[in-house]
């Protein structure tokens, strides 16, 4: 977990205006229990900013439970390698193979998840990784999604109606050149 701590600290230096990295460092200090969804006050998740091979589009999911267009991702379920979590979730939720994950966080986003059934409202500490599609971009919609769609990263960056964190990631991607 020391590598993840160093990555969070580097992220804080790279993106000081975002301010969330300190929360991620503090949560990491609570040990491995926060990599499990049983940590009801908050826990780590891993997500994929899944970019097409040409770098122009991102694959989004119309999330079944949250009913919003978001990046692919999910719970760590005890795995402390969040890059691996993001890659696994991208593969499971898209049906794509030949994906490549960057090993350092691309984005950090702490957000509240509403209460549902027996699950109380809680925080997701979402560590997002850039993932590149390799060969085919023919996805398969999983049971976790209403739909999947490749969307222009430039359009997301300009779309005031898009989720704020999607616009932030789109802007970051475009700055990379």
Topology:
Layout: H1 2-14, H2 21-28, E1 42-51, E2 57-63, E3 69-70, E4 72-75, H3 82-94, E5 100-101, E6 107-113, E7 122-132, E8 145-152, H4 153-158, H5 164-176
Parallel strand pairs: 1-7
Antiparallel strand pairs: 1-4, 2-3, 2-8, 5-7, 6-7
Structure description:
With 177 residues, the protein is α+β, with helices and mostly antiparallel strands. The protein has one domain (2-150): Nucleoside Triphosphate Pyrophosphohydrolase, CATH 3.90.79. The protein is 30% helix and 29% strand. It is built from five helices and eight strands, in the order ααββββαββββαα. The strands form two sheets. Strands 1, 4, 5, 6 and 7 form a five-stranded mixed β-sheet that branches. Strand 2 and strand 3 form a beta hairpin. Helix 1 packs antiparallel against helix 2. The longest helix is centred in the first third of the chain and has 13 residues, at 2-14. The model has no long low-confidence stretch (mean pLDDT 91).
What is the fold-level CATH name, i.e. the topology?
A: Nucleoside Triphosphate Pyrophosphohydrolase
Overall SS class: alpha+beta
Any idea how many domains? Answer: 1
The major sheet is characterized as: 5 strands, mixed
Q: What is the count of helical runs? A: 5
Percent of residues in helices comes to 25-40%
Low-confidence stretches: none
Radius of gyration: 15 Å
CATH architecture: Alpha-Beta Complex
**Shape, principal axes of CA atoms:** globular
Q: Regarding CATH, which class?
A: Alpha Beta
Measured between the Cα atoms of the first and last residue, the distance is 31 Å
Proportion of strand residues:
25-35%
The mean pLDDT is 91
């Amino acid at each position: 977990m020391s590598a993840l701590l160093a990555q969070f600290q580097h992220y804080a230096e790279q993106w000081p205006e975002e301010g969330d990295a300190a929360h991620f460092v503090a949560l990491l200090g609570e040990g491995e229990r926060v990599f499990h969804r049983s940590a009801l006050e908050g826990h780590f998740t891993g997500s994929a900013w899944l970019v097409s091979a040409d770098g122009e589009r991102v694959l989004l999911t119309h999330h079944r439970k949250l009913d919003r267009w978001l990046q692919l991702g999910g719970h760590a379920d005890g795995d402390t390698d969040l890059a691996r979590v993001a890659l696994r979730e991208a593969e499971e939720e898209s049906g794509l193979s030949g994906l490549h994950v960057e090993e350092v966080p691309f984005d950090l986003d702490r957000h509240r998840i509403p209460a549902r059934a027996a699950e109380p409202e809680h925080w997701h500490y979402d560590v997002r990784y850039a993932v590149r599609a390799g060969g085919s971009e023919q996805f398969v919609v999983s049971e976790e999604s209403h739909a999947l769609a490749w969307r222009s990263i430039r359009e997301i960056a300009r779309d005031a109606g898009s989720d704020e964190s999607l616009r932030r990631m789109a802007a970051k991607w475009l700055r990379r050149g």
